[in-house]
Amino acid sequence: MAVIGVLASGKGSNLQALIEAVTSGMVSARIGVVISDHPTAGALSIACASAIPHYCIEEPRRRTFLLPDIEKQYIERLREHRVEILCLAGFMRILKEDLLSAFSGKILNIHPSLLPSFPGLEAWRQAIEHGVKFSGCTVHLVDGKGIDTGRILLQAPVPVLPEDSPEILHRRIQKKEHTLYPLALKLFLAESSLLAGGEKK
Fold it and tell me: ∠ CA(15), CA(137), CA(141), 5° rounding?
């Protein structure tokens, strides 16, 4: 059974969705550890309530990325808990070389748009500002080549209604994320298992 590590910066609603998918047996995996860069992140409380080991490793400076020494601390914790696949669930930092190398091809991220449209921050607001009729969410692999780049695993559309504010659209996209992320993880695990089986032959 694969061991999943989750990095989260915020409330942890996608973490909760992953926990429920694992608990129900929909996803055949175990969440081994949750790490946040914010000590008050709701994700840490969710992990605690589910008896999942959890840590806060802060980046004290206001940066969009983790410095190498901080990244090494993340890697040490993840390896300590034998993590094989890394899921980013609202983790608001750009991963750099060390983490990307440690989990090459095995880092999943959920983004609130239909990539490649509207990468980066507040994608739901970008959708409203551009007047699109549909937005959505995407689960993709993190490749380190750009912001929200990497192979797309799964996408789901969400309509943009005339009366939508950015906040209302964001909530609707998040609701869709909570079903898409577990499904994408399930499919990714199945794909990885098939590839591993092929390599053994």
Answer: 70
Residue 200 has pLDDT above 70, yes or no: no
Question: What pLDDT sits at residue 184?
Answer: 98
Q: How many CA atoms lie within 13 A of 144 on its CB side?
A: 14
Q: List active site positions.
A: 111
**Does this model's pTM top 0.85?**
yes
Closest CA to 142 of 178, 173, 188, 174: 188
Percent of residues, the chain, with pLDDT higher than 70:
95
| Helices of type H across the chain | 13-24, 42-49, 68-80, 97-102, 123-130, 166-200
Topology given in CATH for the domain delimited by 2-200: Rossmann fold (3.40.50)
**How distant, in Å, are the alpha carbons of 129, 136, 137, 143, 183 from that of 173?**
16, 6, 7, 24, 15
Asked if 106 contacts 191 with a C-beta cutoff of 8 angstroms, the reply is no
Region 153-170: mean pLDDT is 97
* DSSP characters over 70-115: HHHHHHHHHHHTT--EEEESS--SB--HHHHHHTTT-EEEEESSST
The confidence band for 60, taking pLDDT boundaries of 50, 70 and 90, is confident
Report d(CA 36, CA 144) in Å as an integer: 20
Interval 93-106 mean pLDDT: 93
